[in-house]
C-alpha cells in the first residue's frame, strides 16, 4: 500500500492526460475528430434525433423505440411543474445573484425535498433514473422562472403539448418560437449534453463515489460548470463580442488582448487540439438564425475573431464560441447562457453518476506534500 509520505510521483497538474476510470457513455474519437454518445456521432444525432431521444440514449445506452419514446416524453412533460415552495425560494434570492447560483440552489432545494433521512445511501438504478428524469424535466422551468422574475414577470406554466425545447422557449418568452429558433436551441442542447470526463462531470463522479446522493452530485457539478474555463465561457464569449461591438475592431481587440497575455474565452480545448468537433454543427445553427442586422454583425465579429486568433496563436474555437451569440439571438440575457448549458448537461452528468454507482470506487488521489516537516507544537508568543 502506498502512503502519502512515500509518494514521489510524476505530478500531472490538472490531471492532464490521466485516465481516471472507464466509461461507456461517450468518447472523443481522435481519428475522425468526432464526439460520440454511446457510439453515435453527436453531429449525426443532431441531424436525425430530438433532444429527448438523445437523453434517452445517454441514460439507457440505446435510442428509444417509438413506444419507449412516447412514454419518455409523457414522463418528461409530467415532471415539468415546479412546486410553489421552490418558486417562492427562487423569488427570495436577490436578482443580483448569478442565475447559476440560483439554479444550483434550486437543485439543492429540490434534492432536500425529495430525499429523506430514511433513504438508502444509493438507491436502485431504477430510482436514480427516475430522479434524473425529474431533475431534467423540472430544471428548464426553474431557469425560465428565474429569467422571467428578473424582467418583473411571473412564471408561465409549462405546456404539455410542446416538446422540450419549444416548451422551454415558450416558458421564457411567452410566445411560440419559430421552428428555426427551436431547431437552433435543440442543436445546442444535443451538443452540450455530454463530454466524457470534463471538470463538472468528474466533480459529479467524485461526489457520487462517496455514495452521496444524485442531487448533491449535480449541485456540485453546477458549481464546477460555472467557472469561465468551463461552462462560463459561453457567457464570457458574449461579453467579448459586446465589448468589440464593431466587426472592424475585432482583429485589433484580439491582438491587444494577446499582447496583454490574456486568454480569449471560447477558444482552445483540453481534449481537442485540432478543433472542437462540435463547432461546425453549432456554427451552422448560429448562422441559420443570424439573419437580422444584429445577427449579421455577430457573425462578422465571429469570423474576424476566429481568423485573428488562428493567425496569432493557431487556436480554434470551442463549442462555447458559436453558442454564445446563438443564445443572444434567441433573446437570452448573457448571464443565462451557462444555466442553459446546465439544462442540457444534466443528461450527461446523471448518466455518469449512475455509471459511477454501478462500479464504484471512492475517488481519493494522493498529493505530494511540500509543506513544513513534522514539528512539535510550540505556541507563538507576542
Ligand atoms: N486564449 C489564448 N491562449 C490560449 C487559449 C485561449 N483561449 N487557450 C489556450 N491558449 C494557450 C495558452 O495560453 C497556452 O499557451 P502557452 O503554452 O504559450 O502558455 C497554450 O495555449 C495551452 O493552453 P492551456 O491553457 O495550458 O491548455 P489547457 O489544455 O490546459 O486548456 C482550456 C484548455 C480550455 C482551459 C484553455 O484552452 C482555455 O482557457 N480556453 C478558454 C476558456 C474556454 O473557452 N473554456 C471552454 C472550454 S470548452
TrEMBL record:
Any single Gene Ontology cellular-component annotation: cytosol
Gene Ontology process terms (BP): carbohydrate metabolic process; tricarboxylic acid cycle
PANTHER family xref list: CITRATE SYNTHASE, CITRATE SYNTHASE, PEROXISOMAL
Protein family membership: Belongs to the citrate synthase family.
Active-site residues, Swiss-Prot/TrEMBL: 269, 320
Gene3D superfamilies: Citrate Synthase, domain 1 (1.10.580.10), Cytochrome P450-Terp, domain 2 (1.10.230.10)
Gene Ontology MF term list: citrate synthase activity
Catalysed conversion reaction: oxaloacetate + acetyl-CoA + H2O = citrate + CoA + H(+)
Pathway: Carbohydrate metabolism; tricarboxylic acid cycle
Source organism (scientific name): Segniliparus rotundus (strain ATCC BAA-972 / CDC 1076 / CIP 108378 / DSM 44985 / JCM 13578)
Top-level lineage group: Bacteria
Entry keywords, A to Z: Acyltransferase, Transferase, Tricarboxylic acid cycle
Name under which the protein is recorded: Citrate synthase
Acyltransferase found in the keyword field: yes
